[in-house]
Design brief:
The chain has 10 helices and no strands. By secondary structure, it is mostly helical.
Length: 226
């Protein structure tokens, strides 16, 4: 049963909550199959679906506004956010940007990907910009393996469509637990970077990502004006 609240959870709480849920599922997967789940492996999605139903987790933090009784989930914990955290944890586990120390590695993921991706409030983009500014202050070089990082995201997007598995009722049901939600943030991120490359043909950098996130803030400010 959903826990209906009056206020949406903060990005920090949502990320922490999702990290815990995903971490438990991944640990259970490792115990059962003696390896962490690979988001490149179509069959792993089906096995992971027995341990993590993204739809069910997302409903745990529905909230209502004012006197309305209809659950409003905008800016709350979304199915896509859970998939996004699962993607981020997988990419970190794969060792991208392994040349950085632990602190810089976290800042890179915070700045380039953020904690959440769907209907996030302005503060999330401010969080990303702060991470990018800190990286520049530390004179951290932009990831040399960013192209392969982006290729991995594209690979996850391809695998999560489960194109090669039989369209059985069981597969379709498990697909709806995780994989159909995974495709949205992976495709969105890949297309975002592709458009950024068109706007900044000279190179991608921490500064170009900061410009992109700042543009999101400015658009939100425009929509919030009376």
């Amino acid at each position: 049963m959903a826990i209906v609240r009056r206020e949406p959870p903060t990005p920090s709480f949502a990320y922490s909550f999702i990290q815990t849920v995903v971490g438990v599922a991944e640990t259970s997967f490792i115990i059962s199959y003696k390896k962490p789940p690979s988001l490149f492996d179509e069959n792993d999605y089906l096995l992971l679906a027995d341990l993590l139903d993204v739809r069910a987790v997302g409903k745990q933090y529905d909230y209502v506004t004012g006197e309305e009784q209809y659950p409003v989930r905008r800016d709350g914990i979304e199915n896509y956010d859970i998939a996004y955290v699962l993607l981020r944890r997988f990419l970190q586990r794969e060792g991208f940007f392994h040349g950085y120390d632990k602190r810089a590695n976290k800042l890179v993921f915070d700045g380039l990907m953020g904690r959440l991706c769907y209907n996030v409030p302005m503060s999330e983009y401010e969080f990303r910009i702060a991470a990018l500014i800190r990286l520049q202050e530390l004179q951290t070089p932009f990831p040399p393996d960013f192209t392969s990082f982006l290729g991995a995201i594209k690979g996850v997007g391809k695998a999560c469509r489960l194109l090669n598995l039989p369209a059985t009722a069981e597969n379709i049901e498990k697909f709806s637990h995780i994989a159909d939600w995974m495709s949205n943030p992976t495709v969105n991120y890949y297309e975002l970077v592709r458009s950024m490359r068109q706007m900044h043909p000279e190179e991608l950098s921490f500064a170009t990502f900061a410009i992109e996130w700042q543009s999101y803030i400015e658009r939100q400010q425009l929509t919030q004006k009376p």
